[in-house]
TrEMBL record:
The protein, known as: Delta(1)-pyrroline-2-carboxylate reductase
Gene Ontology CC terms, in alphabetical order: chloroplast
Top-level taxonomic group: Eukaryota
InterPro entries: NAD(P)-bd_dom_sf (IPR036291), ODC_Mu_crystall (IPR003462), ODC_N (IPR023401)
PANTHER family in the record: KETIMINE REDUCTASE MU-CRYSTALLIN
Length: 341
């Protein structure tokens, strides 16, 4: 059997077996949201400077669909990998009961270029996206947060809920809102039966979104909306707003008032040019780029104050990055090799 050491050693790698395939079910056996959050927290500050990550390629394949290519590589002995994620974005798939985002991740040895693994990255993307949000929430949301409002009931939503609850175990109530109320109801019922959440009360829609926003201590949005769903006037003091869905200028999950009232952080600087909520706010003079409080690595390193008070509203906008993809793929691959599967 090929060992991890064999696949990372150029001399030993010359005649090794073909790349492995890591399916969704295998990936789920290799990592948890908590383990990936811990991995990102410990590796992002030290390894991200060693990673080369060009601007992602985005291609419109039809009026409603996109293809994204996200490459990255590192020559660090601690991270000897080249990786690329190929992503398709088909928002209309929800009508077919299929994921709107699907992806594959290819991992190579960066010393000799040998293919190491092909990873079902649809699930990997859900894990890494949710864990980035939760890691930011660890620094920005109130420790005494009790109510999580999940806006959107797509495939990413359960991951966001699990990840947020892993860093804020004091949350007692999760409200799921979706334009199609039945999807929210089904998800709430399913998650309420998970053994890890027996002490958490799940509910769905119930009343209009504006009223639910007023209730949330942590609000996580994962939609493809082009119309603001969260209005800043409805945010109560001390709320943490997590914006995940938008990755192009036409998309936005909150209005300008939410950006104006909040202290805004991003996962990386690409959000400044890709996130519709921020690009629009810059254009209209709501805030300037200099007023963005910091990024995720800065939060982890303590370069910027996290939450300043229990009354402060914080906003975290993520658009994803190939750096986090590579670090997430590293954990999956190395855990696979250690498992002896």
């Amino acid at each position: 059997m090929t060992t991890k050491e064999d696949q990372l050693n150029p001399a030993a790698s010359a005649a090794v077996t073909p790349p492995i395939f890591i399916s969704t079910s295998t990936l789920q056996s290799l990592i948890t949201h908590k383990s990936l959050i811990h991995h990102l927290q410990s590796t992002l500050p030290t390894l991200s400077p060693t990673i080369h990550s060009p601007i992602r390629h985005a291609h419109q394949t039809s009026p409603s669909s996109s293809l994204l290519l996200m490459p990255s590589w590192s020559l660090s002995p601690s991270l000897p990998y080249v990786g690329i994620k190929l992503v398709t974005y088909y928002p209309n798939n929800s009508t077919l009961n299929l994921p709107g985002v699907q992806a594959i991740y290819m991992l190579f040895n960066s010393l000799i270029g040998q293919p190491l693994a092909s990873i079902d990255a649809t699930e990997l993307t859900y894990y890494r996206t949710a864990c980035v949000s939760a890691l930011a929430s660890f620094y920005l949301s109130r420790e005494d947060s009790e109510t999580l409002l999940m806006i959107g009931a797509g495939s990413l939503a359960p991951h966001l809920i699990r990840a947020h609850l892993s860093v804020r175990p004091g949350v007692k109530k999760v409200i799921i809102w979706n334009r199609t109320g039945e999807k929210a109801r089904i998800m709430a019922e399913k998650m309420s039966n998970e053994s890890d959440f027996l002490e958490v009360r799940f509910q769905s829609n119930g009343c209009n979104l504006e009223e639910l926003v007023k209730e949330g201590d942590i609000i996580s949005c994962a939609t493809n909306s082009e119309i603001p769903l969260v209005k800043g006037v409805d945010l109560k003091a001390g709320t943490h707003l997590d914006l995940v869905g938008s990755f192009k200028n036409s998309m936005k999950e909150c209005d300008d008032e939410a950006i104006r009232r909040g202290r805004v952080f991003v996962d990386n600087e690409a959000a400044l040019t890709e996130a519709g909520e921020l690009v629009g706010a810059f254009e209209r003079g709501i805030i300037t780029k200099d007023e963005i409080a910091g990024d995720l690595v800065g939060l982890i390193k303590g370069e910027k104050p996290k939450r300043k008070s229990s009354e402060e509203i914080t906003v975290f906008k993520s658009v994803g990055s190939a750096v986090v993809d590579l670090l997430s793929a590293q954990l999956v691959y190395e855990n696979y090799m250690k498992s002896g599967q």
